[in-house]
Amino acid sequence: MDELPIGELSQGAGVKVPTIRFYEQIGLLKEPRRTSSNRRYYSGDDVKRLRFIRHSRELGFEIDDIRALLALYDEPQSSCESVHGIAKRHLGQIEQRIGQLQALRGELQRMVHEGQHGRICDCRVIEVLADHDLCQHDHTRAGGIGER
User: Fold this and answer.
1) Which residues are registered as beta bridge partners of 33?
2) Element (DSSP H or E) covering residue 18
3) Of the CATH numbers 3.40.1160.10, 3.40.50.1820, 3.40.50.300, 1.10.1660.10, which one belongs to the domain with range 4-61?
4) Segments of the chain assigned to CATH 1.10.1660.10
5) Residue 5: enclosing H or E segment and its boundaries?
6) N or C of the chain: less Cβ packing under 10 Å?
7) Exposed, middle or buried by CB within 10 Å (0-12, 13-18, 19+), for 44?
8) Using CA atoms, how far apart are residues 46 and 121, in angstroms rounded to an integer?
9) 42 near 10, Cβ under 8 Å?
């Protein structure tokens, strides 16, 4: 594969140009070859690596996990045990988030079904939003923010 300028890499890998630059800045992508006019050119290996990063992000892996996975990817003869450990930990985090989101959904369903009519001063949704103690589930971590 011939070298690609950053715009073609962006289109081919489905990743925006600023994101590619960010991945370079944080070391997920190696510094590309540059021309005398400072244009970046990427190799076929860069395309594969960027697709790996994009797919990992789509699956919800954090940057530090992707960095670790890429280091393992660069050592194809090493044991797969570490990769499985990272994936298993990530799966556990997803399962925890699903549980939190289900609790959040239940709480919102309850709020909506308990009072759909009337005035704002009698609105159950407003009442529960104003007083977290009226919630029946601990859903504070479902959105990734807040502590109870």
Assistant:
1) 41
2) helix 17-25
3) 1.10.1660.10
4) 4-61
5) strand 4-5
6) C
7) exposed
8) 59
9) no
Q: How far apart are CA 108 and CA 64, in angstroms?
A: 33
Position 27 scores a pLDDT of: 94
The tokens 């660069």 sit on which residue? Answer: 74
Do 60 and 66 contact (CB within 8 A), yes or no?
no
- Counted residue by residue, the chain has a size of 148
Give 42's Cβ-side CA count (13 Å radius): 25
In 7-142, the DSSP E strands lie at 33-34, 40-42
Name the amino acid, one letter, at 90. H
Mean pLDDT for the chain overall: 85
Question: Which phi and psi angles does 76 have, rounded to 5°?
Answer: -60, -20
- Hey, how many other C-beta atoms are within 10 angstroms of the C-beta on 25? 10
pLDDT tens for each residue of 76-113: 888 899 999 999 999 999 999 999 999 889 888 877 77
